[in-house]
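writing this on my phone so excuse typos. first protein, seq and then structure
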Amino acid sequence: MTAQPVEPVVPRDPGEDPAAIFEALPPPYRARFRAEYDEALEAAHDLARFKQVQTLLRQWRLRAIAYARPGYEEAVQDALQKRTETFTPYTPPEWDVAGRKSGVRIS
């Protein structure tokens, strides 16, 4: 028997389908999604607020993907506990260039 390489777990993208988002969410987040979704649907009766539904679905789609990532809960706890040694420092390249131009280092 030979060992097979382990493929990285990539969370499934539920798209902007509310039922797929609901199913992709871990159970502790489903009630909040449902409440916010129902509120957005109610607001959508006013056509000026219709985009609220689309915005909500986009936000929750990204949350569902993030929540499904392995290590998500641990990373949140590390951040809340200010355990910075577990994070890799990152400065976007455009910030570094802007910092050098102004003489201020952003990190």
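second protein below, same order as before
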Amino acid sequence: MNIDSILNVFQGIQTFAASPLSANLARIGLILLGLLLMYLGRKGILEPLLMIPMGLGMATINASVLFFDPLGLHGGLGTLFVEAQAGAGLSKVASAGDLMYILGIDWLQPIYTFTFSNGLIACFVFMGIGSLLDVGFLMARPFLSMFLALWAEFGTIFTLPIARFFGYSVKQSAAISMVGGADGPMVLFTSLKLAPELFVPIAVVAYLYLGLTYGGYPYLIRSLVPKKLRAIPMDPPKNKNFTEGQKMAFAAVCCVVLCLLFPVAAPLIFSLFFGVVIRESGIKPFQELLSGPILYISTMFLGLMLGVLCEANTILDPKVLPLLLLGILSLLLSGIGGLIGGYLAWFFSKGKVNPVIGIAGVSCVPTTAKVAQKIVHHDNPQAMVMPYALGANISGVITTAIIAGIFCTLIK
């Protein structure tokens, strides 16, 4: 038995010999990155619910390449996991045939086609998140919460012209800029509507960077907010005990009004407030279903799917490198904008507002609120800013949905 016979048995190894050096280096780098994400998720540095399945999927997909390319899209190499380009041809008849063919081969293709590429999984995640949100934090301090959330959209707004400078179209630039909203489901939804050709890289970059906010934003806060201001204690919020009926009515009115104004984003807006309404309605079986199985199964498959979509071919696309830079820039600008809003609130309140809560306006629920409380508690163990941070956090979800609706409506 010669070496060629042995390599024919172990096709994954043989594909390295048949691929250019750049592709091989990208595959090895992504395998190592996937294992690193799993390690950081296990240690709690990154969000384990998302990073562990994403990391394993990323490492596995780049190790599982074989000589298999039924649609002739990748130069004779492929995997048995998922084909994101299936059904994207110009001919509707041929595309439908290709999609049906791949559905019978790739084991994750049904999940991608029927829940991922149409935004259904994003809606499921939003339902689960909504079932965990207490809108009472927003109702108690609506003006402060919305003020901070609007400032935290700094990256969402200003990344658009920067992306245009890099040569992306207006639609593509708007989809990329939504990464700054730090709202994963909203990024998925907007990229599907505005730039489906960049959907996969935008989704992968967005969730990869969102996982880094918990580890990265504390350094941003410490670099921009001095310890004296980070330690400012905030007065306990006034006792405003909203009834479940009032919260339910608030959620229902917000849902209807926002859907009326931005019908293009109605599926996600409805999903979020549906979860809130179920939470406040007292229907325990539904709430347990949304906050348990639906949320966790959706999150698991979301992370897994993002991982297996992160192939070397995706990273080597010339359009992806600027996207990597724009994604981190967008989140950085949003974090800075939120802290600027926090400083303005501190100034206008004559020192009663801790500027750190501005970071919670970045709508990565509840991660950025937890980051704010963690930083403040480290410098002043007696300070409690979580109720204020959660109000800004929930408002951030709403402002991101509004901006997504504006982008999808105005940019044709």
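The chain is about 70% helix and 0% strand. thats all i got for now
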